[in-house]
Amino acid sequence: MAGPLPLRLTDPSSAAEKLLLHAGPVQSLAELADRYKEVFQQAQRQWEALQQDGQEARTMLDDPALESYRQLLYDADGPLAGVDLSKLVLDDESAAAVRELEQRAGELENSIPDVPSTMAVTEGTPEDLRIHLRGNHITLGEQVPRQFPQVLSPGRRIPVDDKQSGRLQLARWLTSGDHPLTARVIANRVWQWHFGQALVRSPDNFGRLGQRPTHPSLLDFLALRLQDGNWSLKSLHRLIMLSSTYQMSSTWNQGYAESDPENKLLWRMNRRRLEAEEIRDSLLAVGGNLDRRMGGSLLPTKNRAYVTSTANIDIKVYDTRRRSLYLPVVRSALYSVFQVFDFAEPSVPNGQRQVTNIASQALFFMNSKIVMEQSEALAGQLLSMDKASGKQRIQGLYMKVLGRPARDEELASCLAHLEKYSAALEKHGITGADQLRQSWQSLCRALLASNEFIYLD
Q1: What pLDDT does residue 346 have?
Q2: How far apart are CA 448 and CA 366, in angstroms?
Q3: Which domain holds residue 242?
């Protein structure tokens, strides 16, 4: 509402105009100030008179000119709101220099790169809470001081003073050498990552209702090595991957299978399907289109400013060749490719994803945009081998997609597929380069849809 003082009055009968203009020319700044003072005082007197006459419901004066002055008086920021008083005393040259510097400062501020950030906590005012009886926040019991669960720390209760929340003490307690669970939970999850099944097959539950470890001594060994190695996950990964157990093949042994059908004793490596992120990245990799750049974010909005729903999600945020690690996980609009291949529900903790085998997964390899694009790119790579024969191209395809050479029967099957597909295209009037490209694209898509591409054997 506030702004420059109104110097022009359009109502010749206005009391404000009479005070400002009809008294004759202004001889000095002091006289001009006195005239404005009279106008403001008259606006104030008329407003107070309205209030005293019981007209509190009135929101403005009848005289529009005086009303503009009253608004300046009652504006929350005062009559000089929005005016940089420091610039009023500058000459033209200095004011131009200030504007130039301000513009330069704005350009520099806009050029600052985004600094990586992470979520963290700060200490507030700590307080003790009352027990929620039977988990009900309305039915409250006695107040309990902040401390650690007695069942998990018998005989060594760690006190928390009144000036701290207890977060730091909790972190130290969880990672102390005497704590029995933290290192075991982490080592169990790392083992599960490499083998598909953890040593404790209920990774979210180490309690009485959870499963017992198949190799308790091994779990303790890994947990101690993790602690002794300064909690280095990289060292723990290296230790597991250099073991003979990790380097086993998945070859079947009927005798062992009869004794241990679930392979709990790890007599072979389990066959494992790739997870959703790995399937997507593998498709991009064999098509030669995986963007391996590291760092950055694909969300176009700033932290804590991104709110969406399924109706207004910008699908273009998923239309990228960056590794799946950098795709945003929006709970209300999860990436459709992830949903098909058992991506974990992002709203709840989940220690182990489910592995399903459903029709939509086969339909994905038949019809999805990403499979069509990468099979076409893969076919283009094979056809760029100008002097290669059909068998040589097929061998190159098998090495790139499955990591092994094609067998004789597979070579014959692929050549027969190319011949039949080309004949079908020719019946529909597709010949020449288009016929050749679509035939090889069909073969590439068939190989990408094979179980051998999405399963580690």
Answers
A1: 86
A2: 10
A3: 182-259
Query: What are the residue ranges in the chain where pLDDT is below 70?
Result: 1-23, 55-57, 77-89, 153-158, 303-315
Is residue 400 in a domain?
Answer: yes
Q: Determine the distance from the C-alpha atom of residue 23 to the mean position of all C-alpha atoms in its chain, rounded to a whole number.
A: 69
Residue 455: CB atoms within 10 A of its CB come to: 12
**Whole-model pTM over 0.85:** no
Spatial neighbors of 246 by CB under 8 A, at least 6 apart, are: 194, 195, 240, 269
Which pLDDT belongs to residue 212?
A: 93
**Residue 201 burial (10 A CB sphere; 0-12, 13-18, 19+):** middle
Burial class (CB in 10 A: 0-12, 13-18, 19+), 440: buried
Distances in Å between the alpha carbon of 84 and those of 74, 94, 123, 151?
20, 14, 38, 64
Boundary of a domain, candidates 85, 105, 139:
85
Pairing of strands 129-132, 455-456: unpaired
Distance CA 100, CA 88 (A): 17
Return d(Cα 223, Cα 439) in angstroms, integer.
Answer: 53
